[in-house]
Write a structure and sequence with these properties.
Distance between the termini: 30 Å
Low-confidence stretches: 1-19
Oligomer: single chain
Largest sheet: 2 strands, antiparallel
Number of strands: 2
Number of helices: 11
Shape: globular
Helix content: 55-70%
Mean pLDDT: 84
Strand order of the largest sheet: 1-2
């Protein structure tokens, strides 16, 4: 993340030499340009990930039996991840993969299949994680944990991986990479030069929104954007959607009322009000 709080002095050979306002402005502009470029590249990458799942959008036809059991899937994913030494982000990535699978295939869903599906998506979330290397998953131990025969789990992982590869050009694994709403939010914060450590409350609210049945099907980038704006509005901070983010994403403050951005924003405002 670009650090915009650079002091107007720098240490040279043990001495502090004052920098002129022009030099300070130049450093700021260079940092701003570099940040804008880095964030534009990150935005293009995450939108590419999302483009492989065009049937995921606000108001999309949902797999109703799955949605009714999604809370149970979340609980199992978090518990299995913790027991396996994984962080909660990986558990949520597994649910994002499961959301996509249920939208992609509209598979028949039953509660009996939850352990198999959740464990399979957890394996794939670890395998294709963007985070630093995760602990190696012990498949037999995970199978025992969720009480699924190891052969069934192995076959399920292969089947689901095949579904995602089929959804991407050339059968690449890129469709298995999850870019969560929290990662999208981090890109927005970096573009603004904001300290991510100061946004823990917003991140917690964003995770709650992801876990809510209200926003199943909303792409992570849009979920993060509307959560950011709704939270700023709730604190009376204007503009709630800065021009830097509007330029980055293409989502404008005056988005038409029939646009997906506006409709998700209205739902997110109500979510924040009720929280």
């Amino acid at each position: 993340m670009a650090d915009f709080a650079v002091p107007l002095t720098s240490s040279v050979a043990g001495r502090r030499i004052a920098r002129s306002p022009m030099q300070a402005n130049l450093s700021f502009l260079q940092a701003e340009e570099a940040t804008a470029l880095n964030c534009s590249r990150a935005w293009a990458s995450l939108r590419k990930f999302e483009s492989y799942f065009p049937n995921m959008f606000f108001g999309a036809e949902l797999n109703e039996p799955y949605c009714n059991s999604r809370g149970q899937c979340l609980a199992l994913s978090k518990g299995a991840a913790e027991a396996s030494g994984l962080n909660e982000g990986i558990a949520l990535d597994a649910i994002l993969l499961l959301d996509r699978l249920m939208h992609q295939t509209q598979d028949a869903f039953s509660e009996a299949a939850i352990p198999e599906l959740v464990a399979s998506c957890l394996v794939l979330a670890v395998r294709y994680a963007l985070d630093p290397p995760q602990p190696v998953l012990d498949l037999p131990a995970l199978a025992d944990l969720v009480t699924v025969p190891i052969g069934v789990l192995t076959h399920s992982v292969e089947r689901i991986e095949g579904v995602f590869r089929t959804a991407t050009p050339g059968g690449e694994s890129i469709g298995l990479t999850t870019v969560s709403a929290v990662r999208c939010l981090n890109v927005y914060l970096e573009r603004l030069g904001a300290l991510q450590s100061e946004s823990s409350g917003l991140k917690s609210a964003l995770v709650r929104a992801f876990e809510s049945p209200l926003f199943v099907g909303v792409q992570p980038s849009l979920l993060a954007a509307t959560a950011y704006q709704a939270q700023k509005e709730s604190h009376g901070i204007l503009p709630a959607w800065p021009s830097a983010l509007a330029d980055l994403t293409g989502w404008k403050r005056d988005s038409p009322q029939d646009s997906e951005f506006y409709r998700v924003l209205v739902a997110m405002r109500a979510f924040f009000t009720a929280a």
